[in-house]
Amino acid sequence: MRITLIRHGKTAGNAEGRYVGRTDVSLCEEGRREAEQAGTDPQVRSVYVSPLRRTHETAAILFPNAEQIVIDGLCEMDFGAFEGRTAKEMENDPVYRQWVDDLCLGACPGGESQTGFRARVAAAFADALQTAADDSVFVLHGGVIMAIMAEYAEPKKGFYDWIAPNLGGFSFDAVRENGRIRLRNVRPVQMNGGADEAKGAQR
Question: What topology is assigned to 2-190 in CATH?
Answer without folding.
Answer: Rossmann fold (3.40.50)
